[in-house]
Design goal:
Layout (H helix, E strand, L loop, with lengths): L8 H8 L2 H6 L3 H8 L7 E5 L16 H13 L3 E5 L5 H4 L5 H8 L5 H7 L5 H24 L1 E4 L20 H17 L5 E5 L6 H6 L6 E8 L12 E5 L5 H18 L7 E5 L17 H17 L4 E4 L8 H24 L1
Parallel strand pairs: 1-2, 1-3, 3-8, 4-5, 4-7, 5-6, 7-8
Helix pairs in contact: 4-13, 8-9, 11-12, 12-13
The structure holds zinc ion.
Length: about 350
């Protein structure tokens, strides 16, 4: 079914609000990122690992990877400028999420079943970290529109739906940021900002696909393990189902085809912003991924995505997505490599 343009009442509300309230819909620190000139041009990376996610002992989620990634990027990639993530406001979250869900999360009123589906126990720390994960992707998208490439050292919470969280995802950072960037773009340029989501996390971006199912302005591409979570998939604009054990060659071939389809579908009007979910869980060392990509294959994947966007001059907001390595250092190796490729591509944008 072809998607149709439809008025989005929440976006309309944002466009039609008085100038002052539109501007104050941004959080203070996000607004500063918008208005302050950059003194030393660099790739901006927003982090939120200083806000602790309290988990019980033995919990499966590898929360330490965020701090490890932060430390390694700081040490190994000095051209990446690290900045603390701002917090997303209720108004920003309501661009995608039901206000009743946002307040239930904020006030700890989710049912035990809803909390179990998310996979984290509720705590004020979980709420703040989830808000900042969205805030980081918003800030990254704003910076990408200025600088070419910017990113979030976390994010990619693509299993979150408007009315519920799932699979370690509370709010859908990319969906919120996409809608907010479209609103800002329309406010500032009176033009439509087309967005493409290139989701290469090994799990389908089901929440994102559902959010944008009837929205022709946001193209959702998901390449994922056919037999992996979520077991009931949504329809993205382009879904590529991969078999268990998929190796570098077939994966990269499928990626080339998917990207060619993405550009072909946008031959007349290319997207003005790409969100890239560079999930590290397609790596062969991942305990949940079920694919067999090597480090070289993962790096080549990232290179092809960045190169395809750079060639077309399309800004890229990078988010990390999942990564559950048997050795967590391997997940972090993959993510550092993604940032290295981002930096390499960014030099191309900086020269434009
Ligand atoms: Zn994943």
């Amino acid at each position: 079914m072809n998607k149709v343009y439809g008025p989005d009442l929440r976006l309309q509300a944002l466009f039609c609000a008085p100038q002052q309230s539109r501007r104050t819909s941004l959080t203070g620190s996000a607004q500063r990122h918008l208005t302050q000139p950059l003194h030393n041009r660099a790739v901006l990376a927003f982090f939120n690992d200083h806000h602790v996610l309290p988990l019980p002992p033995g919990h499966r989620f590898p929360v330490s990877k965020y701090r490890l990634l932060h430390e390694r990027v700081e040490r190994e990639l000095p051209e990446v400028r690290l900045a603390p993530a701002p917090s997303a406001s209720d108004g920003e979250l309501a661009l995608v999420h039901e206000p009743s869900y946002v307040s239930a999360v904020a006030e700890g009123r989710l049912t035990p079943a809803q909390q179990r589906e998310i996979g984290f126990p509720w705590s004020p720390g979980m709420v703040e970290r989830s808000r900042r994960s969205v805030g980081a992707t918003i800030a990254a998208a704003q910076a990408a529109l200025r600088e070419g490439i910017a990113g979030n050292l976390a994010g990619g919470t693509h299993h979150a739906y408007p009315d519920r969280g799932s699979g370690y995802c509370v709010f859908n950072d990319v969906a919120v940021a996409a809608r907010l960037m479209q609103a800002h773009w329309h406010r500032d340029h009176r033009r439509l900002l087309r967005v493409a989501v290139i989701d290469l996390d090994v799990h389908q971006g089901n929440g994102t696909a559902a959010v944008f199912r009837d929205d022709a302005t946001v193209f959702t591409l998901s390449m994922h393990g056919a037999k992996n979570f979520p077991f009931r998939k949504e329809a993205s604009d382009l879904d590529v189902d991969l078999p268990d054990g998929c190796t570098d060659g077939p994966y990269l071939q499928a990626l080339d085809q998917a990207l060619a389809t993405l550009w072909a579908r946008h031959a007349d009007e290319p997207p003005g912003l790409v969100f890239y979910l560079a999930g590290a869980d397609a790596h062969e060392g991942d305990r949940l991924g079920r694919l067999k990509l090597t480090h070289a294959g993962m790096a080549e994947r990232d290179r092809r995505v960045f190169a395809a966007c750079a060639q077309r001059g399309i800004p890229v907001a990078l988010v990390m997505g999942g990564g559950y390595g048997r050795l967590i250092e391997e997940t972090v190796d993959v993510q550092v490599s993604t940032w290295r490729e981002a930096l390499r591509a960014w030099h191309g944008y900086a020269r434009r």
